[in-house]
Design brief:
CATH architecture of the largest domain: 3-Layer(bba) Sandwich
Radius of gyration: 25 Å
Distance between the termini: 47 Å
Helix content: 25-40%
Structural class: alpha+beta
Strand content: 15-25%
Number of domains: 4
Mean pLDDT: 93
CATH superfamily of the largest domain: FAD/NAD(P)-binding domain
Low-confidence stretches: none
Largest sheet: 8 strands, mixed
Number of helices: 17
Amino acid sequence: MESFDVIVIGGGHAGCEAALASARLGASTLLLTMNNDHIAQMSCNPAIGGIAKGQVVREIDALGGEMAVNADATSIQFRMLNETRGAAALSPRAQCDRMLYSKRMKMVIERQENLAVHQAEAMEPVVENGRIIGVKTIFGDVWGCRALVVCTGTFLGGKLHFGLQSMSGGRMGDPASNAFSTALRDLLHLEMGRLKTGTPVRVLGQSIDFAAMDMQPSAPDGHFSFREDVPHVPFFSELTLSRRPCYLTYTNAKTAEVVRANLDRSPMYSGRIHSTGARYCPSFEDKVVRFPDRQSHHVYIEPEGDSTDEFYLNGISTSLPVDVQWQMVHTLPGLEKARLSRYAYAIEYDIVMPYQLDAGLAVRQWPNLFLAGQINGTSGYEEAAGQGLMAGINAARLAGNLGTPVALRRDEAYIGVMIDDLVTKDIVEPYRLFTSRAEYRLSLRQDNADRRLTRLGHEIGLVPASRIQQLDAYEAAIRDGKAQLQKIRVDGHNLWELMKHPDFDYAATPNLPVFPPRIMEQLLIEARYAGYIAHQAQQAASFRKLDDCRIPADFDFHLDGLSAEAVAKLTKRRPATLGQASRIDGVTPAEIALLQIRLRRHESH
């Protein structure tokens, strides 16, 4: 039996980041995937980033991950969302060439030192003396490991729905992983759940009347990564892609009429689908039923890449029968004669209920088993990649005895917000990040991800010293700029104080210092939001005291004064800190205060 330090199951966005992080930390790593040609496949939307998701992509980059660099190398459109709102809401988003995104990530993985890739379906973990020691594949091979990272996406028990027609599959064109799902439930005795997601149709560009739609041009430039040390990747380093627009059209009364006339053929409304879908990314038939008074909905027409004529219809995901899909699409302005190249479908899949995880994404019952991505109940490439990065880091640290697990706090990163939510909240639908989920979102901005996390990435071992030198120079330039501005007076007023007012236009004021764009951006934000950021920092410091209060793994929560609901939830979730306990639904502040007193007594004994 050949052994590795870490085995990663699944070559999706979570698996790619997990495998790369593990290998880059020096752990011998094996990536097991069902199809080597589908590594990093963009199964749904060919885009990276978006609201809160763009922040995660930049956090991945700051910590030493690959997603941002890969998106930049294969992007065909870049936009900054929420530009009319404040700095905390700004979110970058890139439309990528679907095939090139996958191919570049595949090459990066194949060229990575310490990382082997093998095409095979994982059937079950190998357990010995209460510990996972390897993985058995469909071919009978057994690969040994010190730590296992499972990133199976929608493949566990996956079932595809096209109207009343259903078939097994992890996504269209790939088989489901039924055996491994059974092993998690029956061999490892993990509590499982089941969720649903979906995808819209694709249409051929030559059949679209773009003149009937609103054009959304790309920004002339823009990128996710602030790295200056991107390694050379043959073919892709010399690749230049053109910037392309997206288009906007709208559904109408005819579209809704088609849906209502066929609801009895919908698997959602006929009882064939029992699992819960994403509330914030519903199918179109769900929109029609839930919002009957709304006359129209946006549909974004997005190119799939420079190497294909397919376009993705964002906003009209459905599981209605294929004949109904033709009717729906042909009611949309500009798509009256559209040729559907791929049908939409819904997919049901198994998850592991994430309350069984700790903050480092290890399963408490099996400490060398890590889970990342949709297996934990999340949705989206970015959420998956953020989890994969952290799981890969912690698996490598465990396998190599490199130190305690790394767990990001809620005031450090959106990735920390997401993981904390997963281990403390009830996941009853696919989890999606939003800026509103972050209490400290004014500090967790997309523009300062490198300032927040690059030093941590260096401490972990994923970020080279050269990037710390670049960061030091950047921080020095910001400090020098601030000092310079504080010495200037405009019409008898201190310039730095004037910059705190939202109606002050720096660019329109003559004879002021000119700074590089990123430096100017940070100076304006620091001046305008200084008081709010300081207030959030005080709040974070206060809550951090609860997160620093550890709860022993064997602590008995059956205490006088705690409600039965609190005891049940605390016992089930086993929070590692008092802060985690305070964020569990159903546990009151009074019960947290009581628990804090009992923990102090416990420590004194």
